[in-house]
Design goal:
134 residues, alpha/beta, 5-stranded parallel β-sheet, 5 strands
Length: 134
């Protein structure tokens, strides 16, 4: 199974969280590709079974992130997509904005991870396990 972990990080916390996710998935036997949104070639999504995409919470889903995320829309099915973010205070409406940009209907449940510290918790790992084994 192949997983692609894409992230947008401003100060490094989200990049660290993305690495944590990628390393955890790799430890579970998945072939993992990890990349910043700014360095990623969307054609590399070919053959990807799971998409993990995330960014930092800044109150606004940054325009550049939206443009890139639109390119991902429909490439990987919604039930094989997981969203993640890091935050200082709260995640706000970020996950809803990400779903909208990816053209995932509100009625479709997409797993979401969030971290204030940038590290995976036991609960995060359990959710990742459920997601890759569903």
């Amino acid at each position: 199974m192949k997983a692609t972990v894409l992230y947008y990080s401003r100060r490094g916390k989200t990049a660290g969280y993305a690495r944590e996710i990628a390393m955890y998935l790799w430890s579970k036997g998945l072939d993992v590709s990890l990349s910043s949104l700014t360095d990623y070639d969307p054609e590399k999504l070919s053959g990807t079974d799971f998409l993990f995409t995330g960014c930092w919470t800044c109150g606004w889903f940054v325009i550049g992130q939206q443009e890139f995320s639109r390119k991902l829309s429909g490439v990987i099915p919604a039930d094989r997509t997981l969203l993640f973010t890091t935050y200082k205070f709260r995640t706000g409406s970020l996950f809803g904005q990400m779903k909208k940009t990816l053209h995932i209907p509100r009625s479709v449940r997409v797993p979401c991870l969030s971290s204030k510290t940038g590290f995976l918790t036991k609960e995060n790992k359990e959710l990742l396990d459920q997601f890759i084994h569903s």
